[in-house]
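Narrative progress, year one. The postdoctoral researcher (J.K.) led the effort to move from monomer predictions toward full complexes, under supervision of the PI. The following entry was the first complex the group processed end to end, covering 535 residues in total.
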Amino acid sequence: MIETPQPAPLVEHFFRHEYGRLVAVLSRQVGVEHLEQVEDAVQSALAAALETWPVRGQPDDPGAWLFRVAQNQLRSELRTASRRQGILERHPMDEVEDASPPETHLRGEVGDGLLRMLLVCCDPALPVESQLVLALKTLCGFDVREIALRLFRTEANIYKRLSRARARLREAPLELEGIPEIEQRRPAVHAVLYTMFTEGHLSSHPDAALRRELCDEAIRLAGVLAAHESNNEAAPTPETCALLALMHLHAARAGAREDASGGLLLLEEQDRRLFDAAQIHAGLSWLERSARGETFSRYHAEAGIAAEHCLAASFEETRWDQVVEGYASLIAVSPVHRLNHAVALAQWKGPAAALAALEGFEPPTWLAGSYQWSAVLADLHHRAGGLEQAARHRAVAVELAPTDAIRALLARRLAWLEGQPSSG
Amino acid sequence: MPSYLCLQRSLPSENRSKPSPAQMQEMYAKFGAWKEKFKDNLTDLGGKLGEGKLVASEAPADGPFVEVKELVGGYMIVSAETLEQAIEIAQGCPGLVSPGSGVEVIEIHRP
Protein backbone atom coordinates (compact mmCIF):
# COMPACT_ATOMS: atom_id res chain seq x y z
CA MET A 1 0.00 0.00 0.00
CA ILE A 2 1.10 3.56 -0.57
CA GLU A 3 2.53 5.36 2.43
CA THR A 4 3.19 9.03 1.82
CA PRO A 5 2.60 11.57 4.57
CA GLN A 6 -0.57 13.59 4.14
CA PRO A 7 0.79 16.88 2.75
CA ALA A 8 -0.16 20.26 4.10
CA PRO A 9 -2.94 21.53 1.83
CA LEU A 10 -1.70 24.05 -0.71
CA VAL A 11 -2.97 27.57 -0.32
CA GLU A 12 -5.70 28.72 -2.68
CA HIS A 13 -4.40 29.60 -6.15
CA PHE A 14 -0.95 28.17 -5.23
CA PHE A 15 -0.19 26.91 -8.76
CA ARG A 16 -1.39 30.09 -10.43
CA HIS A 17 0.47 32.45 -8.10
CA GLU A 18 3.57 30.29 -8.11
CA TYR A 19 3.48 30.55 -11.91
CA GLY A 20 3.48 34.36 -11.63
CA ARG A 21 6.26 34.43 -9.04
CA LEU A 22 8.51 32.07 -10.99
CA VAL A 23 7.97 33.82 -14.31
CA ALA A 24 8.79 37.14 -12.65
CA VAL A 25 11.94 35.95 -10.87
CA LEU A 26 13.30 33.86 -13.74
CA SER A 27 12.69 36.42 -16.46
CA ARG A 28 14.54 38.91 -14.33
CA GLN A 29 17.49 36.51 -14.26
CA VAL A 30 17.65 35.80 -17.96
CA GLY A 31 15.93 38.83 -19.47
CA VAL A 32 12.34 39.32 -20.63
CA GLU A 33 13.34 38.71 -24.23
CA HIS A 34 13.27 35.04 -23.23
CA LEU A 35 9.78 35.30 -21.75
CA GLU A 36 8.43 32.47 -23.86
CA GLN A 37 11.14 30.02 -22.75
CA VAL A 38 10.66 31.15 -19.15
CA GLU A 39 6.94 30.48 -19.31
CA ASP A 40 7.51 27.08 -20.90
CA ALA A 41 10.00 26.15 -18.18
CA VAL A 42 7.60 27.19 -15.42
CA GLN A 43 4.73 25.33 -17.07
CA SER A 44 6.80 22.15 -17.23
CA ALA A 45 7.92 22.54 -13.61
CA LEU A 46 4.26 22.66 -12.56
CA ALA A 47 3.54 19.62 -14.74
CA ALA A 48 6.48 17.81 -13.10
CA ALA A 49 5.06 18.64 -9.68
CA LEU A 50 1.71 17.23 -10.67
CA GLU A 51 3.40 14.00 -11.72
CA THR A 52 5.86 13.69 -8.86
CA TRP A 53 4.17 14.99 -5.72
CA PRO A 54 1.22 12.61 -5.63
CA VAL A 55 3.59 9.62 -5.84
CA ARG A 56 6.66 10.76 -3.91
CA GLY A 57 4.95 13.12 -1.53
CA GLN A 58 4.74 16.90 -1.50
CA PRO A 59 8.09 18.55 -0.68
CA ASP A 60 8.42 20.56 2.54
CA ASP A 61 8.95 23.73 0.57
CA PRO A 62 6.89 23.35 -2.62
CA GLY A 63 7.86 26.82 -3.88
CA ALA A 64 11.58 26.09 -3.65
CA TRP A 65 11.09 22.72 -5.36
CA LEU A 66 9.28 24.37 -8.27
CA PHE A 67 11.92 27.08 -8.51
CA ARG A 68 14.72 24.53 -8.73
CA VAL A 69 13.01 22.44 -11.37
CA ALA A 70 11.97 25.45 -13.46
CA GLN A 71 15.44 26.96 -13.25
CA ASN A 72 17.12 23.72 -14.34
CA GLN A 73 14.67 23.32 -17.17
CA LEU A 74 15.23 26.89 -18.32
CA ARG A 75 19.00 26.52 -18.10
CA SER A 76 19.11 23.47 -20.29
CA GLU A 77 16.67 25.08 -22.69
CA LEU A 78 18.80 28.21 -23.00
CA ARG A 79 21.98 26.20 -23.27
CA THR A 80 20.56 24.37 -26.24
CA ALA A 81 19.47 27.63 -27.79
CA SER A 82 22.80 29.27 -27.04
CA ARG A 83 24.65 26.72 -29.08
CA ARG A 84 22.89 28.25 -32.01
CA GLN A 85 22.74 31.87 -30.96
CA GLY A 86 25.31 32.60 -28.27
CA ILE A 87 22.76 33.73 -25.71
CA LEU A 88 24.87 32.65 -22.76
CA GLU A 89 27.47 35.23 -23.63
CA ARG A 90 24.99 37.86 -22.66
CA HIS A 91 23.27 36.00 -19.84
CA PRO A 92 25.72 33.68 -18.16
CA MET A 93 23.25 31.42 -16.39
CA ASP A 94 26.05 29.26 -15.04
CA GLU A 95 27.24 32.08 -12.83
CA VAL A 96 24.08 32.05 -10.78
CA GLU A 97 24.09 28.28 -10.66
CA ASP A 98 25.28 27.83 -7.11
CA ALA A 99 25.43 31.41 -5.96
CA SER A 100 22.77 31.01 -3.30
CA PRO A 101 20.08 28.56 -2.38
CA PRO A 102 16.83 29.01 -4.28
CA GLU A 103 15.04 29.95 -1.06
CA THR A 104 16.95 33.22 -1.01
CA HIS A 105 15.96 33.98 -4.58
CA LEU A 106 12.36 33.36 -3.81
CA ARG A 107 11.96 35.22 -0.55
CA GLY A 108 14.23 38.15 -1.35
CA GLU A 109 13.25 38.84 -4.89
CA VAL A 110 9.65 37.95 -5.26
CA GLY A 111 8.16 41.37 -4.53
CA ASP A 112 10.78 43.05 -6.68
CA GLY A 113 10.37 40.48 -9.42
CA LEU A 114 6.60 40.86 -9.53
CA LEU A 115 6.84 44.63 -9.68
CA ARG A 116 9.44 44.53 -12.44
CA MET A 117 7.29 42.16 -14.43
CA LEU A 118 4.33 44.46 -13.93
CA LEU A 119 6.38 47.35 -15.34
CA VAL A 120 7.40 45.13 -18.25
CA CYS A 121 3.74 44.38 -18.99
CA CYS A 122 2.76 48.06 -18.89
CA ASP A 123 4.71 48.89 -22.02
CA PRO A 124 3.26 52.07 -23.54
CA ALA A 125 4.03 50.69 -27.01
CA LEU A 126 1.29 48.08 -26.44
CA PRO A 127 -2.45 48.78 -26.38
CA VAL A 128 -3.82 48.80 -22.81
CA GLU A 129 -5.82 45.66 -23.42
CA SER A 130 -2.67 43.83 -24.49
CA GLN A 131 -0.89 45.07 -21.37
CA LEU A 132 -3.75 43.63 -19.35
CA VAL A 133 -3.65 40.32 -21.20
CA LEU A 134 0.10 40.05 -20.71
CA ALA A 135 -0.25 40.74 -16.97
CA LEU A 136 -3.02 38.16 -16.60
CA LYS A 137 -0.90 35.59 -18.40
CA THR A 138 2.49 36.17 -16.80
CA LEU A 139 1.64 37.49 -13.33
CA CYS A 140 -1.67 35.85 -12.55
CA GLY A 141 -1.04 32.51 -14.27
CA PHE A 142 -4.24 32.39 -16.34
CA ASP A 143 -3.97 30.58 -19.66
CA VAL A 144 -5.27 31.82 -23.01
CA ARG A 145 -8.61 30.06 -22.64
CA GLU A 146 -9.15 31.43 -19.12
CA ILE A 147 -8.26 34.98 -20.17
CA ALA A 148 -10.58 34.79 -23.17
CA LEU A 149 -13.39 33.64 -20.91
CA ARG A 150 -12.86 36.46 -18.43
CA LEU A 151 -12.44 39.27 -20.95
CA PHE A 152 -15.18 38.11 -23.35
CA ARG A 153 -12.73 37.76 -26.22
CA THR A 154 -11.93 34.89 -28.54
CA GLU A 155 -8.94 32.69 -27.77
CA ALA A 156 -7.49 33.72 -31.13
CA ASN A 157 -7.67 37.37 -30.09
CA ILE A 158 -5.88 36.71 -26.79
CA TYR A 159 -3.31 34.54 -28.51
CA LYS A 160 -2.57 37.24 -31.07
CA ARG A 161 -2.19 39.90 -28.38
CA LEU A 162 0.22 37.70 -26.44
CA SER A 163 2.42 36.85 -29.37
CA ARG A 164 2.61 40.51 -30.42
CA ALA A 165 3.47 41.49 -26.87
CA ARG A 166 6.21 38.86 -26.66
CA ALA A 167 7.61 39.99 -29.99
CA ARG A 168 7.72 43.54 -28.67
CA LEU A 169 9.58 42.35 -25.55
CA ARG A 170 12.12 40.52 -27.69
CA GLU A 171 12.78 43.70 -29.67
CA ALA A 172 12.82 46.16 -26.82
CA PRO A 173 13.32 44.34 -23.54
CA LEU A 174 13.02 46.59 -20.53
CA GLU A 175 16.32 46.89 -18.73
CA LEU A 176 15.54 45.19 -15.47
CA GLU A 177 18.41 46.44 -13.38
CA GLY A 178 17.16 49.31 -11.31
CA ILE A 179 13.65 50.50 -11.99
CA PRO A 180 13.94 54.03 -13.36
CA GLU A 181 10.93 53.23 -15.51
CA ILE A 182 8.64 53.22 -12.51
CA GLU A 183 8.29 57.00 -12.81
CA GLN A 184 7.22 56.85 -16.44
CA ARG A 185 5.20 53.69 -16.20
CA ARG A 186 3.39 54.21 -12.92
CA PRO A 187 0.30 55.76 -14.55
CA ALA A 188 0.16 52.82 -16.97
CA VAL A 189 0.44 50.35 -14.08
CA HIS A 190 -2.43 52.13 -12.33
CA ALA A 191 -4.50 52.05 -15.52
CA VAL A 192 -3.90 48.33 -16.10
CA LEU A 193 -4.74 47.40 -12.51
CA TYR A 194 -7.83 49.60 -12.64
CA THR A 195 -8.91 47.88 -15.85
CA MET A 196 -8.25 44.44 -14.36
CA PHE A 197 -10.41 45.30 -11.37
CA THR A 198 -13.18 46.82 -13.46
CA GLU A 199 -13.25 43.83 -15.81
CA GLY A 200 -14.04 41.72 -12.77
CA HIS A 201 -16.29 44.15 -10.95
CA LEU A 202 -18.49 45.22 -13.84
CA SER A 203 -18.33 41.94 -15.68
CA SER A 204 -21.62 40.31 -16.52
CA HIS A 205 -20.04 36.88 -16.38
CA PRO A 206 -22.48 34.40 -14.85
CA ASP A 207 -19.83 32.84 -12.62
CA ALA A 208 -19.35 35.06 -9.56
CA ALA A 209 -16.10 33.30 -8.61
CA LEU A 210 -14.52 34.26 -11.93
CA ARG A 211 -15.44 37.90 -11.50
CA ARG A 212 -14.17 37.94 -7.94
CA GLU A 213 -10.84 36.47 -9.05
CA LEU A 214 -10.00 39.39 -11.33
CA CYS A 215 -10.78 41.84 -8.52
CA ASP A 216 -8.63 39.88 -6.06
CA GLU A 217 -5.74 39.75 -8.54
CA ALA A 218 -5.91 43.52 -9.10
CA ILE A 219 -5.87 44.13 -5.35
CA ARG A 220 -2.97 41.71 -4.90
CA LEU A 221 -0.84 43.38 -7.59
CA ALA A 222 -1.72 46.89 -6.39
CA GLY A 223 -0.49 45.70 -2.99
CA VAL A 224 2.83 44.71 -4.59
CA LEU A 225 3.13 48.21 -6.04
CA ALA A 226 2.25 49.84 -2.71
CA ALA A 227 4.81 47.67 -0.87
CA HIS A 228 7.51 48.64 -3.35
CA GLU A 229 6.67 52.31 -2.96
CA SER A 230 6.74 51.95 0.82
CA ASN A 231 10.21 50.44 0.68
CA ASN A 232 11.71 52.78 -1.86
CA GLU A 233 9.86 56.05 -1.60
CA ALA A 234 9.02 56.09 2.11
CA ALA A 235 5.29 55.79 1.42
CA PRO A 236 2.95 54.61 -1.31
CA THR A 237 2.03 57.38 -3.72
CA PRO A 238 -1.36 59.05 -3.19
CA GLU A 239 -2.65 57.59 -6.49
CA THR A 240 -1.70 54.05 -5.50
CA CYS A 241 -3.45 54.49 -2.15
CA ALA A 242 -6.55 55.92 -3.82
CA LEU A 243 -6.60 53.04 -6.31
CA LEU A 244 -6.45 50.50 -3.48
CA ALA A 245 -9.13 52.44 -1.61
CA LEU A 246 -11.55 52.34 -4.52
CA MET A 247 -10.89 48.65 -5.15
CA HIS A 248 -11.60 47.68 -1.54
CA LEU A 249 -14.65 49.95 -1.33
CA HIS A 250 -16.14 48.46 -4.49
CA ALA A 251 -15.24 44.93 -3.39
CA ALA A 252 -17.07 45.63 -0.12
CA ARG A 253 -20.37 45.78 -1.98
CA ALA A 254 -19.72 42.78 -4.25
CA GLY A 255 -21.61 40.33 -2.06
CA ALA A 256 -24.69 42.56 -1.93
CA ARG A 257 -24.96 43.14 -5.67
CA GLU A 258 -26.76 39.90 -6.40
CA ASP A 259 -29.86 38.17 -5.15
CA ALA A 260 -29.90 34.51 -4.12
CA SER A 261 -30.35 33.30 -7.68
CA GLY A 262 -27.50 35.40 -9.05
CA GLY A 263 -29.67 38.18 -10.48
CA LEU A 264 -28.23 41.69 -10.34
CA LEU A 265 -29.59 44.07 -7.73
CA LEU A 266 -29.86 47.83 -7.98
CA LEU A 267 -28.02 49.91 -5.40
CA GLU A 268 -31.35 50.86 -3.84
CA GLU A 269 -32.31 47.19 -3.53
CA GLN A 270 -29.05 46.04 -1.95
CA ASP A 271 -29.06 44.86 1.64
CA ARG A 272 -26.47 47.08 3.28
CA ARG A 273 -25.95 44.57 6.07
CA LEU A 274 -24.22 42.43 3.45
CA PHE A 275 -21.53 45.03 2.80
CA ASP A 276 -18.18 43.60 3.84
CA ALA A 277 -17.03 45.53 6.92
CA ALA A 278 -13.40 44.39 6.63
CA GLN A 279 -13.22 45.60 3.03
CA ILE A 280 -14.80 48.93 3.97
CA HIS A 281 -12.29 49.29 6.77
CA ALA A 282 -9.37 48.52 4.44
CA GLY A 283 -10.78 50.89 1.82
CA LEU A 284 -11.21 53.77 4.26
CA SER A 285 -7.74 53.37 5.63
CA TRP A 286 -6.25 53.50 2.12
CA LEU A 287 -8.46 56.51 1.40
CA GLU A 288 -7.04 58.24 4.45
CA ARG A 289 -3.49 57.50 3.30
CA SER A 290 -4.31 58.80 -0.19
CA ALA A 291 -5.07 62.26 1.15
CA ARG A 292 -1.51 63.51 1.02
CA GLY A 293 0.12 66.33 -0.92
CA GLU A 294 -1.55 68.19 -3.76
CA THR A 295 -2.60 65.17 -5.75
CA PHE A 296 -6.26 64.61 -6.50
CA SER A 297 -6.53 61.94 -9.18
CA ARG A 298 -9.52 60.28 -10.81
CA TYR A 299 -8.89 57.41 -8.40
CA HIS A 300 -9.35 59.78 -5.48
CA ALA A 301 -12.68 60.96 -6.87
CA GLU A 302 -13.91 57.43 -7.58
CA ALA A 303 -12.80 56.17 -4.17
CA GLY A 304 -14.58 59.10 -2.54
CA ILE A 305 -17.84 58.25 -4.32
CA ALA A 306 -17.49 54.56 -3.44
CA ALA A 307 -16.95 55.55 0.20
CA GLU A 308 -20.15 57.62 0.20
CA HIS A 309 -22.14 54.60 -0.95
CA CYS A 310 -20.50 52.28 1.57
CA LEU A 311 -21.07 54.65 4.47
CA ALA A 312 -24.63 55.78 3.73
CA ALA A 313 -27.09 54.13 6.11
CA SER A 314 -29.60 53.74 3.27
CA PHE A 315 -30.05 54.64 -0.38
CA GLU A 316 -32.19 57.63 0.60
CA GLU A 317 -29.70 58.87 3.17
CA THR A 318 -26.78 58.89 0.70
CA ARG A 319 -25.02 62.25 0.63
CA TRP A 320 -25.96 62.86 -3.00
CA ASP A 321 -24.40 66.32 -3.01
CA GLN A 322 -21.03 64.69 -2.32
CA VAL A 323 -21.59 62.07 -5.00
CA VAL A 324 -22.57 64.75 -7.52
CA GLU A 325 -19.45 66.71 -6.69
CA GLY A 326 -17.32 63.59 -7.12
CA TYR A 327 -18.74 62.83 -10.56
CA ALA A 328 -18.47 66.48 -11.58
CA SER A 329 -14.71 66.22 -11.10
CA LEU A 330 -14.64 63.08 -13.26
CA ILE A 331 -16.53 64.41 -16.28
CA ALA A 332 -13.27 65.30 -17.99
CA VAL A 333 -12.01 61.72 -17.53
CA SER A 334 -14.84 59.96 -19.31
CA PRO A 335 -18.22 61.00 -20.72
CA VAL A 336 -19.76 58.04 -18.91
CA HIS A 337 -19.27 60.04 -15.71
CA ARG A 338 -21.49 62.77 -17.12
CA LEU A 339 -24.19 60.15 -17.10
CA ASN A 340 -23.33 59.11 -13.54
CA HIS A 341 -23.32 62.76 -12.58
CA ALA A 342 -26.84 63.16 -13.96
CA VAL A 343 -28.10 60.08 -12.10
CA ALA A 344 -26.76 61.38 -8.79
CA LEU A 345 -28.11 64.86 -9.55
CA ALA A 346 -31.57 63.37 -10.09
CA GLN A 347 -31.40 61.91 -6.58
CA TRP A 348 -30.23 65.19 -5.12
CA LYS A 349 -32.17 67.83 -7.03
CA GLY A 350 -34.70 65.83 -9.02
CA PRO A 351 -35.03 64.49 -12.58
CA ALA A 352 -35.63 67.87 -14.21
CA ALA A 353 -32.26 69.15 -12.95
CA ALA A 354 -30.60 66.00 -14.26
CA LEU A 355 -32.17 66.33 -17.72
CA ALA A 356 -31.18 69.99 -17.80
CA ALA A 357 -27.57 69.01 -17.00
CA LEU A 358 -27.55 66.59 -19.92
CA GLU A 359 -29.06 69.10 -22.34
CA GLY A 360 -26.79 69.95 -25.21
CA PHE A 361 -24.47 67.07 -24.39
CA GLU A 362 -23.60 65.04 -27.48
CA PRO A 363 -22.51 61.61 -26.26
CA PRO A 364 -19.81 59.81 -28.27
CA THR A 365 -21.26 57.02 -30.39
CA TRP A 366 -20.09 54.24 -28.06
CA LEU A 367 -21.96 55.84 -25.20
CA ALA A 368 -25.02 56.77 -27.23
CA GLY A 369 -25.16 53.16 -28.41
CA SER A 370 -24.90 51.68 -24.91
CA TYR A 371 -27.83 50.37 -22.91
CA GLN A 372 -26.77 52.58 -19.96
CA TRP A 373 -27.38 55.77 -21.90
CA SER A 374 -30.88 54.76 -22.99
CA ALA A 375 -31.77 53.30 -19.60
CA VAL A 376 -30.83 56.47 -17.74
CA LEU A 377 -32.74 58.66 -20.19
CA ALA A 378 -35.79 56.39 -19.94
CA ASP A 379 -35.74 56.63 -16.18
CA LEU A 380 -35.17 60.38 -16.02
CA HIS A 381 -37.87 61.16 -18.59
CA HIS A 382 -40.32 58.91 -16.83
CA ARG A 383 -39.68 60.53 -13.49
CA ALA A 384 -39.97 63.98 -15.08
CA GLY A 385 -43.31 63.01 -16.65
CA GLY A 386 -42.17 62.58 -20.25
CA LEU A 387 -43.82 59.20 -20.71
CA GLU A 388 -43.55 59.03 -24.47
CA GLN A 389 -39.80 59.70 -24.51
CA ALA A 390 -39.41 57.32 -21.59
CA ALA A 391 -41.04 54.46 -23.49
CA ARG A 392 -38.88 55.10 -26.55
CA HIS A 393 -35.62 55.02 -24.57
CA ARG A 394 -36.74 52.01 -22.58
CA ALA A 395 -37.29 49.96 -25.72
CA VAL A 396 -33.80 50.84 -26.94
CA ALA A 397 -32.22 50.00 -23.57
CA VAL A 398 -33.83 46.56 -23.38
CA GLU A 399 -32.83 45.91 -26.97
CA LEU A 400 -29.20 46.79 -26.25
CA ALA A 401 -28.84 44.85 -22.98
CA PRO A 402 -25.78 42.63 -23.42
CA THR A 403 -26.84 39.82 -21.08
CA ASP A 404 -29.98 38.27 -19.67
CA ALA A 405 -29.05 39.39 -16.16
CA ILE A 406 -28.90 43.02 -17.30
CA ARG A 407 -32.09 42.65 -19.34
CA ALA A 408 -33.85 41.34 -16.22
CA LEU A 409 -32.48 44.24 -14.22
CA LEU A 410 -33.72 46.78 -16.78
CA ALA A 411 -37.11 45.14 -17.03
CA ARG A 412 -37.49 45.49 -13.27
CA ARG A 413 -36.07 49.00 -12.96
CA LEU A 414 -38.07 50.27 -15.90
CA ALA A 415 -41.15 48.21 -15.06
CA TRP A 416 -43.53 51.18 -14.95
CA LEU A 417 -44.61 50.55 -18.50
CA GLU A 418 -46.11 47.29 -17.37
CA GLY A 419 -48.38 49.27 -15.11
CA GLN A 420 -46.23 49.25 -11.99
CA PRO A 421 -45.32 52.48 -10.32
CA SER A 422 -41.80 53.78 -10.64
CA SER A 423 -39.66 53.28 -7.57
CA GLY A 424 -37.85 56.58 -8.13
CA MET B 1 -7.17 -10.03 -4.05
CA PRO B 2 -6.26 -10.15 -7.74
CA SER B 3 -3.90 -7.56 -9.17
CA TYR B 4 -4.42 -5.54 -12.29
CA LEU B 5 -1.89 -3.82 -14.50
CA CYS B 6 -3.07 -0.42 -15.69
CA LEU B 7 -1.37 0.92 -18.81
CA GLN B 8 -1.89 4.52 -19.80
CA ARG B 9 -2.32 4.71 -23.56
CA SER B 10 -1.89 7.80 -25.68
CA LEU B 11 -4.86 8.23 -27.95
CA PRO B 12 -5.22 10.50 -30.92
CA SER B 13 -7.23 13.55 -29.97
CA GLU B 14 -7.92 16.96 -31.43
CA ASN B 15 -8.36 18.96 -28.27
CA ARG B 16 -5.43 17.92 -26.17
CA SER B 17 -4.50 21.23 -24.59
CA LYS B 18 -2.08 21.71 -21.73
CA PRO B 19 -3.84 22.18 -18.42
CA SER B 20 -3.63 25.68 -16.96
CA PRO B 21 -2.05 26.22 -13.52
CA ALA B 22 -5.52 26.49 -11.97
CA GLN B 23 -6.57 23.22 -13.60
CA MET B 24 -3.37 21.57 -12.40
CA GLN B 25 -4.11 22.55 -8.83
CA GLU B 26 -7.59 21.11 -9.20
CA MET B 27 -6.15 17.86 -10.58
CA TYR B 28 -3.63 17.74 -7.75
CA ALA B 29 -6.41 18.04 -5.17
CA LYS B 30 -8.49 15.41 -6.96
CA PHE B 31 -5.50 13.11 -7.10
CA GLY B 32 -5.04 13.41 -3.34
CA ALA B 33 -8.70 12.57 -2.76
CA TRP B 34 -8.56 9.64 -5.20
CA LYS B 35 -5.43 8.25 -3.55
CA GLU B 36 -7.02 8.51 -0.13
CA LYS B 37 -10.22 6.84 -1.30
CA PHE B 38 -8.47 3.85 -2.88
CA LYS B 39 -5.40 3.71 -0.63
CA ASP B 40 -5.98 -0.01 0.10
CA ASN B 41 -6.13 -0.83 -3.60
CA LEU B 42 -3.18 1.12 -4.93
CA THR B 43 -0.39 -1.47 -4.82
CA ASP B 44 2.06 0.48 -6.94
CA LEU B 45 1.44 3.96 -8.31
CA GLY B 46 4.02 3.13 -10.96
CA GLY B 47 5.29 5.88 -13.17
CA LYS B 48 6.05 7.07 -16.65
CA LEU B 49 7.85 4.77 -19.03
CA GLY B 50 11.06 5.88 -20.70
CA GLU B 51 13.12 4.50 -23.51
CA GLY B 52 13.04 0.76 -24.20
CA LYS B 53 14.06 -1.82 -26.69
CA LEU B 54 12.56 -5.03 -27.95
CA VAL B 55 14.92 -7.97 -27.47
CA ALA B 56 14.16 -11.06 -29.55
CA SER B 57 15.88 -14.27 -30.57
CA GLU B 58 15.11 -13.59 -34.18
CA ALA B 59 15.33 -10.33 -35.99
CA PRO B 60 11.76 -8.96 -36.07
CA ALA B 61 10.01 -8.67 -39.37
CA ASP B 62 10.12 -5.38 -41.26
CA GLY B 63 8.92 -2.28 -39.43
CA PRO B 64 7.74 0.36 -38.97
CA PHE B 65 8.06 -0.14 -35.22
CA VAL B 66 6.52 2.21 -32.72
CA GLU B 67 8.49 2.97 -29.61
CA VAL B 68 6.94 1.59 -26.44
CA LYS B 69 6.60 5.01 -24.80
CA GLU B 70 4.55 6.31 -27.70
CA LEU B 71 2.03 3.55 -27.14
CA VAL B 72 2.16 3.34 -23.37
CA GLY B 73 2.73 6.46 -21.32
CA GLY B 74 2.89 4.90 -17.89
CA TYR B 75 1.76 2.08 -15.68
CA MET B 76 0.43 1.35 -12.21
CA ILE B 77 -0.74 -1.74 -10.36
CA VAL B 78 -3.97 -1.89 -8.40
CA SER B 79 -5.54 -4.70 -6.44
CA ALA B 80 -9.26 -5.24 -6.76
CA GLU B 81 -11.88 -7.95 -6.33
CA THR B 82 -12.97 -7.82 -9.95
CA LEU B 83 -11.98 -6.32 -13.28
CA GLU B 84 -14.95 -3.97 -12.94
CA GLN B 85 -13.68 -2.64 -9.65
CA ALA B 86 -10.18 -2.22 -11.09
CA ILE B 87 -11.69 -0.25 -13.96
CA GLU B 88 -13.58 1.93 -11.51
CA ILE B 89 -10.35 2.72 -9.66
CA ALA B 90 -8.45 3.51 -12.86
CA GLN B 91 -11.28 5.67 -14.18
CA GLY B 92 -11.32 7.68 -10.98
CA CYS B 93 -7.68 8.67 -11.41
CA PRO B 94 -7.72 12.34 -12.50
CA GLY B 95 -6.52 12.89 -16.05
CA LEU B 96 -5.95 9.23 -16.82
CA VAL B 97 -9.09 8.97 -18.88
CA SER B 98 -9.23 12.30 -20.71
CA PRO B 99 -8.91 13.65 -24.24
CA GLY B 100 -5.73 12.07 -25.63
CA SER B 101 -5.37 9.48 -22.91
CA GLY B 102 -6.99 6.17 -22.05
CA VAL B 103 -6.18 3.28 -19.79
CA GLU B 104 -5.91 -0.42 -20.46
CA VAL B 105 -6.73 -2.57 -17.41
CA ILE B 106 -5.31 -6.11 -17.51
CA GLU B 107 -5.52 -8.82 -14.89
CA ILE B 108 -2.20 -10.22 -13.71
CA HIS B 109 -2.28 -13.99 -13.24
CA ARG B 110 0.05 -14.95 -10.47
CA PRO B 111 0.99 -18.59 -10.27
